[in-house]
TrEMBL record:
Superkingdom per UniProt: Eukaryota
Pfam families assigned to the protein according to its UniProt record, in alphabetical order: BTB (PF00651)
Domain BTB: 23-94
Gene3D superfamilies: Potassium Channel Kv1.1, Chain A
GO CC, one annotated term: cytoplasm
The name this protein goes by in its record: BTB domain-containing protein
InterPro entries per record: BTB/POZ_dom, BTB_POZ_domain_cont_9, SKP1/BTB/POZ_sf
Length: 181
């Protein structure tokens, strides 16, 4: 018989992130003037994200530190993702739906597969009306990413049942011509 102690493990790894003890990776997120540095541990990052795995395998160390730059991800979103990577916890209370969608895109960029699946499911189950209102944006982004199959199916179902929705969405003018064909 085996026992599982995931809650304490999650707390311990989250504390390791906060303490920055024995870190060997510095991650720079955002662009000037909003740059923020996060300190991490290559073994944890390697194991929890395919993106970091690829970066770490080819990384060159400077003074035993690996530097990774993520200029397209905001510090707020990366903070959520790094806490997920270490502790397996994502707290999205009081989080705007559009920011959740940005989080989904950022999590996909970092190949945090489990988080991407969870966020897509949450969107479809809890934020379907937002997905419909922002149909063009959701449609475009979902079809640019192979990992967004649930959103692709959701979008196709909406389009099949309500073909006019694409013309009534707030961001119709941003839709690429190829998406209409």
């Amino acid at each position: 018989m085996s026992s599982k102690f995931f809650e304490q493990l999650s707390q311990d790894l989250s504390q390791l992130l906060k303490s920055e003890y024995d870190y060997n990776v510095v991650i720079t997120v955002c662009e000037q003037p909003n740059i923020q540095l996060f300190k991490g541990h290559s073994a944890i990052l390697y194991q929890r994200s395919l993106y970091f795995r690829q970066k770490l395998v080819n990384a060159v160390k400077k003074n035993n530190i690996i530097e990774i730059k993520l200029p397209t991800i905001s510090a707020k979103l990366f903070n959520i993702i790094i806490n997920y990577i270490y502790g397996g916890i994502v707290s999205l209370e009081n989080f705007e739906v559009s920011a959740k969608f940005d989080l989904l895109v950022a999590a996909n960029e970092l190949e945090a597969t489990e988080l991407v699946k969870h966020l897509q499911s949450q969107f479809i189950n809890d934020n379907a009306s937002w997905l419909r209102i922002n149909f063009s944006r959701v449609y475009q982004i979902s079809f640019l990413n192979k990992n967004f199959e649930p959103l692709q199916q959701f979008s196709n179902n909406i389009l099949t049942k309500h073909p006019g929705i694409i013309f009534n969405s707030d961001d119709f003018t941003t839709l690429q011509e190829s998406a209409l064909i």
